[in-house]
Amino acid sequence: xxxxxxxxxxxxxxPRQRDDEPRLIQRARQGDKQAIxxxxxxxxxxxxxxVWMRVRDDMMAEDLTSQVFLKALEGLPTxxxxxxxxxxxxxxIAHARIVDHWRRQERRQEVAPDDTLPAPGPHPQExxxxxADWAMAVDLLAQLTDEQQDVLILRFIGDMNLTQVAETLGxxxxxxxxxxxxxxxxLARLLEEQGGAR
Length: 198
What we know:
The chain is 69% helix and 0% strand. It is built from eight helices and no strands.
């Protein structure tokens, strides 16, 4: 699941794929197994990366990603394209699964999210050059609010533009931009504090 980061800002689909997406979705809604498989392969890596950044655990991210696609499969017959990308719908499902996961964790009073360390081995995304930088980035991101984390993950890991992030999170573009601004300012402050602590 740990695929390469898309570089075209599409969140995982090439321009040609985005053009054929409505037809592919229609076929999938009618039960076409090949179309369902194509949608899964097209978006599984980017959904996995989003989930992993929120839970920071390989096995849990794989489990939650599977739940996202199972829920999407169940909802496909009634899915109606609304002008938003199909990926935005998948991100909304993923966000709901992540919220459910953390609620269950709180009820069980197990390890708090901030105490979870990334699993050893290859990371789902090569954001930074070294593992130390990766661990620091994940730790800094975890210090932001959930809303700020969602916006930054969707923008910079999911490669979504502000409009797509706003649609996915059910916010206005202005509100999303403000959250992004506050999140980046907080990250800059945290980085400065970390530099002063060394």
